Amino acid sequence: MDQLLQHGLNALMLGGTYALLGIGLTLIFGIMRVVNFTHGELYAFGAYMMYMLVMLTGANFFVALVLAVALGVALGAALEFVLLRKLRGADIDTTMLVMIGAWIALQNAEQLAWTGVAQSIDSPFPSAPLVIGTVSVSWGRVFVFCVALALIAATYALINHTRLGKAMRATFQDRDTAALMGIQIGTINNATFALGSGLAAAAGALLGPVYVAYPTMGDLAALKAFAIVILGGLGSIAGATAGGFILALAEELGAGYISSGYRDAMGFVLIILILIFKPTGLFAQKERVG
Amino acid sequence: MKKLLTALWVLFLFSLPLWMGNQYVLHVLVVTGIFIVAAMSLNLLLGYAGQLSLGHVAFFGIGAYASALVSLGFSVHVTPDTVLALAPQPVWCGVLAAVLAAGACGWFIGRLSFKVRGAYFVIVSISFAEVVRLIALNWVELTQGPMALNNIPPLTLWLPGLGEYTFWKKPENYWLVLSIALVSYVIVRRLVRSRAGRAMVALRENEPLATSVGIDVTRYLVLATVISAAMAGAAGALYAHYIRIVDPDVFLFIYTVTMVIMVITGGKGTLAGPVVGGLIFGLLPETLRAFAIPPEVQWIVYGVLMVLVVYFLPAGIVPAAQQWWQRRQGKLAIAKAAP
Amino acid sequence: MNRTIWTSIGAGLVGAALLAGPAAAQGVIRIGVTQPLTGAFAASGNYVTQGAKIAEDQINAAGGVLGRKIQLVVEDNKSNPTEAVATAEKLIGKDKVPVMMGAWSSTLTLAVMPKLMEYGVPMLVETSSSGKITTSGNPWIFRISPTSEMEAKAFAAMAKKMGIKKADFLSTNNDFGLGAAKEFSEMLKGQGVQIGTMETMDPKATDFSAQLAKIKASGSDTLFVTTAVEQITLILKQAKEQQLKARIITTGGSNSPDQLIQQAGDAANGSFHLVFFTPWFPEAVKNPDLARKFVAEWNARKYPVGGLTEGFRGWDGINTIVAAIKAAGKAEPQAIQKALWNVKVKGINGDIAFIKQGPAGKESAQNVPSVYVVKIEKGKVARN
Residue B214 CB: number of other CB atoms within 10 A? Predict the structure, then answer.
């Protein structure tokens, strides 16, 4: 029973960051219809920015966190402007290829800049864990969980209660009509990509100090983000949030009770099952035509 | 005239090992050739049928493992009491098994893709490849997991009159891969120019319209996937018996990316596209190796090059070259016609 | 269609021409080195190469061998078996090296082995631990690193002293981790130790909470961990988070205690590590002066301190090869292979000499290296 509780607690803590990754990607994927392969690299970027700021320039941890997310947003906006702006209207293969090329270039640039050795980032939290009965969790993870929830709430508020959010939702529902209504699709695209990237960078900046930063850390994160998007349904924030927690729970329970080696397979098995039985995802808002 | 040029070119390719003594270059050409076969199979699915499959390496890897396991023999416990065992079989048996196994998986994916399309299919295909990789990694009893299947026997051919012939040397492997590449090219060409091929293109261009005209979507999609998968499986088998070691890393996403790059920069939906793309991106990493630049920079060059090709030649190199030639022809014709 | 034919021919010819490359330089003796400089094992591959480069410079400064300087031709096998084969082809086929060192991980080395047989070139194996390498009947293999079996046996006496009653295993899911888990568990079973649960993880995984929760529930007093240093750092941290009481022992030699102290902080205290070189107390090794010189040169070049526990492998490897070249009298593969059987080299790990291992008539060579156990306490490495 204790083991089960511990697994549940682990899943809860992890689910928050998975949700951040998933929300970022589902927005980009849903509104822009771009298969964003650089999502994982933004995650790694967030972690590396924390490394740079905290370890190399000695900045305050929390200030660094805010800066890292801001830098992630900026990088996302820049990527969209440089790479995707000209490709608007091109078919999905082309954008996919460009994203893959950018992914390879970014990942190796990170490796060139900071070497392949994993870098750890000091965090101000005590290393002794918070003990609740028979289960324990580190303070660092609790912090990550709280910040993740805050960011999820903020994003939800942005999408549902601001004008920008309204414009995004309109673009998601019907791009052409939205354009006819006077919405600047270019700006929306840029804002969406920047927001999604910022969330990925936030996830990386939060998890970097909990784990370590290394150049290929984004790959697995990206694949899981895709799994969450499918689970939750394209374009649904609530879906991505739920998807994040479900994936984390599936991983923990699968690794704990079925087989630890297949831990990362859980997400993919879930994807395939969902797509066979409920292709629109668990919480889809729109009929997916493809 | 065209046929003569084609024949000359094929002859030239066959003659290569006779005057090129450099074993290293031959090795690179063999590996490139294997990847070109895989790229051609992906082109069938991606270029002609219009299905974005990013898990193609799964078929390649399944073919490699199937062939390796059949030629090495295996025994697994399906339940704690019963054992399923196979004694080592001749290599051609393994290749056959590879084609069948990959084709069967292709059938499964083909049926699945009936329900999902576009970006969702992309993700399903990636997930499929990842799951297969994790199975290969963890089902140690069957696949040796990360300890890899090594000492895989090289290809042997049984020719009537000559008996068994084993492909130890590089030139022989080169000729074998070249022959298989040519055969694959011919298969794809005949398929694409047949009724089935036209149906696939119709599917790609406008699916609702194609269905309304009476084209059976599922049937042609599944057909395309099965043939594509079987061909990739054959390429995988070739790979297993040439490199002679197979480990779960053969399922890594980066190999799918390599194949996709080859097809799309070469020109998807064209016959020669994957060949050109394959030559470029198969030879490029090895060429870059000669210039002693840090490996990360090599990869960055690779990535940037990809983006540039996509920007300036979005349909791929082959269609761009064709267009350029046609424009030149047009100009020449005008020049000739003008008094 | 014609255009595309010519384009393809053009692309092919240009590529082939570029691959043909410059002619080999006369005068230097080239030694091929294939290591993972990028990819999953990049950190370790770079450490080994750095150690090898130190050896190269020291040997050349002392006049080289046979009156000629040596030159390391380093190729990146990208942590990938297909690339490992390509590097072997290039080094042997194009650079015409008479001897090689590599390829770091067991799978990479296994991939290269058929090439050694095909071309008849010896290779010195400096890190790989799989038993298969020296028992496959390949007479061109000369290994100085220990197999997991040797490591386990060397640890047996220490295990008894530690009084282990029940042990769990957490290993990375590749030949290195699984091999070690198998050998150590068998060694412990022979001593009457109870084996708890044997968990694995993906080499790229960063979250082990599920595995650790399971291990915590098993009630063992010791946990054996075999993986690379990045994962060990995370395991130590997460074990502390979950309040794992068991003592942690890491094996395999890729565990870099310095890096662990730096990155895991006080989560590293109380852990034990099996290493093949103790740069913190060189007097513990067989040839302390060599060790001290190496450490001094490494630090002078400002190489990462955490890399010392792997970099020495490159140094030992190159010195062994050069000793063989000297004994052979000429830089030719078969002569070097014969000479390698008889070398006796003073290495950083200890004295290097080869014994026969594998099927009769086609034996490979294996060195019997020394294994050391250190402990981390109060943020420092201590002798056990």
Answer: 7
Helices (runs of H) and strands (runs of E) counted in chain A: 11, 2
Quick check: helix, strand or coil at residue C375? strand
| Predicted local confidence at residue A73, as pLDDT | 94
Q: Give me the phi and psi of B110, to 5 degrees please.
A: -60, -45
- Please count the other Cβ atoms lying within 10 Å of the Cβ belonging to residue C302: 7
The pair of three-digit structure tokens given for residue A7, joined into one six-digit string: 């697994």
Please report residues of A whose CB lies closer than 8 A to that of B118. Answer: 92, 290
* Residues C78 and C103: beta-carbon distance below 8 Å: no
The domain locations on chain A are: 7-110+135-216
Query: Does A55 contact C at CB distance below 8 Å?
Result: no
Its sign, for the CA torsion A65, A66, A72, A75, is negative
CA atoms within 13 A on the CB side of A168: 31
DSSP string, C327-365: HHSS--HHHHHHHHHT--EE-SSSEE-EEEESSTTS-EE
Buried b (16+ CB within 10 A) or exposed e, C318-332: bbbbbbbbebbeebe
Locate tokens 């107390």: which residue? C281
ipTM value, please give it: 0.77
Query: What token pair was written down for C336?
Result: 């070097």
Mean pLDDT of C95-101: 93
For each of the domains in chain C, give its residue range(s) and CATH number, in order of start. 26-146+290-367 (3.40.50.2300), 149-275 (3.40.50.2300)
Pairwise CA distance, residues A9 & A1, whole Å: 12
Which amino acid appears at position B252 of this protein?
L
Say how far apart CA C366 and CA C371 lie, in whole Å. Answer: 15
C60 CB within 8 Å of a chain A CB: no
With a CB cutoff of 8 Å and minimum separation 6, the contacts of B54 are B122, B125, B126, B129, B253, B256, B260
**Per-residue pLDDT tens over the stretch A166-206:** 888 888 888 888 888 888 888 888 999 999 999 999 999 99
- Write the Ramachandran bin of B318: left for phi over 0, alpha for psi from -120 to 50, otherwise beta: alpha
Residue with tokens 């004008």: A163
> What spatial distance separates the first Cα and last Cα of chain C, rounded to whole Å?
73
Nearest of B278, B283, B257 to residue B266 by alpha carbon: B278
Query: Cβ distance B93 to A200 under 8 Å?
Result: no
Interface of B with C in 253-282 (CB under 8 A): 270, 272, 275-276, 279-280
The pTM assigned to this predicted structure is 0.83
Task: Give the CA radius of gyration of chain C.
Answer: 22
Structure token digits, residue B208: 């609702």
Binary contact (A90, B116; C-beta < 8 A): no
Q: How far apart are CA A236 and CA A283, in angstroms?
A: 7
Cβ B131 vs Cβ A265: under 8 Å: yes
Q: For residue C259, how many C-alpha atoms fall within 13 Å in the half-sphere facing its CB?
A: 27
